[in-house]
Amino acid sequence: MRLWLLLSLASALFAQRSLIPADSAAVEAGKQIYLGSCSGCHGATGEGSQGPSLLSGRASRLPDRTLLHSIKNGLPGTSMPNFPMADEKVLQVAAFVRSLTLPAIATPVAGDPERGRRAFFGAGRCSTCHMILGQGGYPGPDLSNIGAQRTAPQLRESVMKPSARIAEGYRSVTAMLKSGRTVQGVAKNHNNYSVQILDNSGKLHLLKSEEIEKLDMRDASMMPAVSDANEALHLIAFLSRQSTRPQMGDSR
């Protein structure tokens, strides 16, 4: 009897979580509605503007019914109005809002992961600076678990606008030494007395300020932006599947 009750509760919780669709068509349809009705207050990518950010995770933690009710009926006592849309459209907007904070591996992403893999390790030359499961190079971040660490929109920004946000320890730097030698890579640590530079071969250079003739440190990424939208689509699809922990139903 107790086991039956636990199974019934688990089934009810699963059904509650499953109210909002997660397929790419629903997410894309919801995005279009969101851009027309919600982005003025919450920002085009949920970053917030007149209204609060949707990227903090608070919206993703709301029960499905609460989120759906909030979208359709608004929030009394706040500036968020009601949106008397058809239930199908409310579900689509909720699907898009959920997608803003779900890790990429947990969301449907358009594109061909295999074509993205070939680009990453081939013509795209991504693996000259990035490593996945021990295959690849330096000095970029290891991407073995990137699909579980980043959302699909974050992956898209990283691929197409790599200088939009520079993670600590990955600022591009060039040090011209008094000896005539030049060291180029990313600044892992930097202060008034020294700088640590990781170069393309993976070697860490510990340089004291008295050794340096000129230090050029830029608020930019060494990574070139992927300008071809089709290539970016497949590359994002590949990166979105990268996780060090297999997902449920994953046969890897």
Structure description:
- This protein has 252 residues and is of the alpha+beta class.
- The protein has ten helices and seven strands.
- The strands form two sheets. It has a five-stranded antiparallel beta sheet with strand order 6-5-4-3-7, with no helix packed on it. It has a two-stranded antiparallel sheet with strand order 1-2.
- Helix 7 packs across helix 10.
- The longest helix has 16 residues, at 2-17.
Radius of gyration: 23 Å
Largest sheet: 5 strands, antiparallel
- The portion of residues assigned to helices is 25-40%
Strand order, largest beta sheet: 6-5-4-3-7
List the helices and strands and how they pair.
Elements: H1 2-17, H2 24-37, H3 39-42, H4 58-61, H5 64-73, H6 87-99, H7 113-121, E1 131-132, E2 135-136, H8 146-149, H9 152-160, E3 171-177, E4 182-190, E5 194-198, E6 204-208, E7 212-218, H10 229-240
Antiparallel strand pairs: 1-2, 3-4, 3-7, 4-5, 5-6
Helix pairs in contact: 2-6, 5-6, 7-10, 9-10
In short:
With 252 residues, this protein is an alpha+beta fold.
Descriptive keywords:
about 250 residues, elongated, alpha+beta, disordered C terminus, two-stranded antiparallel sheet, 7 strands, 10 helices, disordered N terminus, 5-stranded antiparallel beta sheet
